[in-house]
């Protein structure tokens, strides 16, 4: 009996560890390995984009905006989507039928869907009765959300977060006034699990968990462990678990740390975003990026959800790069997709002049669909960085070099660097104010290759620069200081 008593907890621990590891699997199709955040897009537009652009260009998945009903706020700021009022699947992006159709269509072409889910809170205070995008009503000031239903008994007592080093305040008080759900409450847990289960039934591959830091890891573990397996009708294997990546802002000195969550699923590595921005803004030399990753204090690669910017920090001042600094942004994104670290997500934004700005909308406040020019770029208020040639071709680079390591790092002791990815890829960067002209080891087989940054291989020809690699793998690499792009990238699939 003593041996059996010892064995049972060990078996339970092993099973829980297996579940936790499974929740780090994004369930990518083929060699694809990049997620794009189509921020505030409509479900029908995402379905079209999966079929017409994302699958052909090798994207692995889409992070979508919150899917459940939210309050209607004056001017329709983007953040109203983060003020839920019920778990009905109806937002400005579409209704449940639209969402289900989108998930099916994207899965059918091998593009996975990850939903931004709001488990921490409901809407904040609203003058009088709040009305939702699905017609539900609530009185947030009284913590009354009858469409769920939730009452005041389902929330933590109201308090403000005034001390970010106080665990109680961070996890039980109200983040920017949002009514803080009690995830230890059985009724709340039941509602949240049912919500996630419903999304899984519809075919999603996983979740981005908003404000995870503001919920106790033990409560999240209970919720994750009790969510159903992925739906095999959508091409997932038996017993597959949802991919989970959690928003935990941790600069390395937080009382509530990312290490409390990284065994439950991946964690957003915000320091990656800040440090890569600092480097390509010229505030840190590129040569130091040779040790990029865990040596910089980042999470282990398979636990880190990495990005140059996200929908929040692209709106902040500071080191983080966004689409408004396009040359440096494309360089940072190319490094992000070329260096073998992290679970990569690229941002696809709409244009903004102020932090609260709504997505592109018509006079009736309906979100409008992106429109495209002859080169496929967006034209009507949508930025669509994922459609920039320099970015989607680097998604192809990342696919081509998947499974290879980094070798043959070269730098000039400053802001010119280059490296190989096995024998499959080579990339070089010039962030100096003078030209890069070097003969470098590319690690590629002899031949002529198309630089996928300046152009693309089409019908056996290159629309941009071409580079000839000799029998020993060497090639002359040139990137002018004043060139449109500060990157050159070659890979095996771009051989002419």
From TrEMBL:
<feature type="domain" description="Glycosyl hydrolase family 13 catalytic">
    <location>
        <begin position="33"/>
        <end position="398"/>
    </location>
</feature>
<dbReference type="InterPro" id="IPR017853">
    <property type="entry name" value="GH"/>
</dbReference>
<comment type="similarity">
    <text>Belongs to the glycosyl hydrolase 13 family.</text>
</comment>
<dbReference type="GO" id="GO:0005576">
    <property type="term" value="C:extracellular region"/>
</dbReference>
<dbReference type="InterPro" id="IPR031319">
    <property type="entry name" value="A-amylase_C"/>
</dbReference>
<keyword id="KW-0873">Pyrrolidone carboxylic acid</keyword>
<dbReference type="GO" id="GO:0046872">
    <property type="term" value="F:metal ion binding"/>
</dbReference>
<keyword id="KW-0119">Carbohydrate metabolism</keyword>
<keyword id="KW-1015">Disulfide bond</keyword>
<dbReference type="InterPro" id="IPR013780">
    <property type="entry name" value="Glyco_hydro_b"/>
</dbReference>
<dbReference type="GO" id="GO:0004556">
    <property type="term" value="F:alpha-amylase activity"/>
</dbReference>
<keyword id="KW-0868">Chloride</keyword>
<comment type="subunit">
    <text>Monomer.</text>
</comment>
<keyword id="KW-0326">Glycosidase</keyword>
<keyword id="KW-0106">Calcium</keyword>
<dbReference type="Pfam" id="PF02806">
    <property type="entry name" value="Alpha-amylase_C"/>
</dbReference>
<protein>
    <recommendedName>
        <fullName>Alpha-amylase</fullName>
        <ecNumber>3.2.1.1</ecNumber>
    </recommendedName>
</protein>
<dbReference type="InterPro" id="IPR006047">
    <property type="entry name" value="GH13_cat_dom"/>
</dbReference>
<keyword id="KW-0479">Metal-binding</keyword>
<dbReference type="InterPro" id="IPR006048">
    <property type="entry name" value="A-amylase/branching_C"/>
</dbReference>
<dbReference type="GO" id="GO:0005975">
    <property type="term" value="P:carbohydrate metabolic process"/>
</dbReference>
<feature type="signal peptide">
    <location>
        <begin position="1"/>
        <end position="22"/>
    </location>
</feature>
<dbReference type="InterPro" id="IPR006046">
    <property type="entry name" value="Alpha_amylase"/>
</dbReference>
<dbReference type="Pfam" id="PF00128">
    <property type="entry name" value="Alpha-amylase"/>
</dbReference>
<feature type="domain" description="Alpha-amylase C-terminal">
    <location>
        <begin position="407"/>
        <end position="495"/>
    </location>
</feature>
<keyword id="KW-0964">Secreted</keyword>
<keyword id="KW-0378">Hydrolase</keyword>
<keyword id="KW-0732">Signal</keyword>
């Amino acid at each position: 009996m003593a041996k059996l008593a010892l064995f049972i907890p060990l078996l339970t621990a092993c099973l829980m560890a297996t579940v936790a590891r499974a929740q780090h699997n994004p369930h990518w199709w083929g060699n694809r390995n990049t997620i794009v955040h189509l921020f505030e897009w409509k479900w029908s537009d995402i379905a079209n984009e999966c079929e017409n652009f994302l699958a052909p260009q090798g994207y692995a998945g889409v992070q979508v905006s919150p899917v459940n009903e939210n309050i209607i706020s004056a001017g329709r700021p983007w953040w109203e989507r983060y003020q839920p009022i019920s778990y009905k699947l109806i937002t400005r992006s579409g209704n449940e039928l639209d969402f289900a159709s989108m998930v099916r269509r994207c899965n059918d072409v091998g593009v996975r869907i990850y939903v931004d889910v709001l488990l921490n809170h409901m809407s904040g205070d609203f003058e009088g009765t709040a009305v939702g995008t699905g017609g539900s009503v609530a009185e947030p000031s009284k913590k009354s959300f009858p469409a769920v239903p939730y009452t005041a008994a389902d929330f933590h007592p109201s308090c403000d977060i005034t001390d970010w080093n106080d665990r109680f305040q961070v996890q039980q008080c109200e983040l920017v006034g949002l009514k803080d759900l009690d995830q230890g409450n059985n009724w709340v847990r039941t509602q949240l699990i049912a919500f996630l289960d419903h999304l899984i039934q519809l075919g999603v591959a996983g979740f981005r968990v908003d404000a995870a830091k503001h919920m106790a890891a033990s409560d999240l573990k209970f919720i994750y462990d009790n969510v159903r397996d992925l739906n095999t009708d959508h091409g997932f294997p038996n017993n597959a678990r949802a991919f989970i990546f959690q928003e935990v802002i941790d600069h390395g000195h937080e009382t509530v740390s990312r290490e409390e969550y990284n065994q439950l699923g991946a964690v957003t590595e915000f320091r990656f975003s800040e440090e890569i921005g600092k480097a390509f803004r010229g505030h840190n030399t590129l040569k130091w990026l040779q040790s990029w990753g865990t040596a910089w204090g980042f999470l282990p690669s398979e636990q880190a959800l990495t990005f140059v910017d996200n929908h929040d920090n692209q709106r902040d001042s500071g080191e983080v790069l966004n689409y408004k600094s396009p040359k440096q942004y494309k360089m940072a994104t190319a490094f992000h997709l070329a260096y073998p670290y992290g679970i990569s997500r690229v941002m696809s934004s709409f244009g903004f002049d102020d932090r609260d700005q709504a997505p592109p909308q018509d006079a009736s406040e309906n979100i409008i669909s992106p429109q495209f020019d002859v080169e496929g770029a967006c034209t009507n208020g949508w930025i669509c960085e994922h459609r920039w040639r320099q970015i989607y071709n680097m998604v192809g680079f990342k696919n081509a070099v998947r499974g290879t390591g980094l070798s043959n790092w070269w730098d000039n002791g400053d802001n010119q660097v280059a490296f190989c990815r096995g024998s499959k890829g080579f990339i070089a960067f010039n962030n100096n104010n003078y030209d890069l002209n070097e003969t470098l080891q590319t690690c590629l087989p002899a031949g002529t290759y198309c630089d996928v940054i300046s152009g693309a291989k089409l019908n056996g020809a290159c629309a941009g620069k071409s580079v000839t690699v000799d029998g020993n793998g060497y090639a002359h690499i040139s990137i002018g200081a004043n060139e449109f792009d500060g990157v050159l990238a070659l890979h095996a699939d771009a051989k002419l």
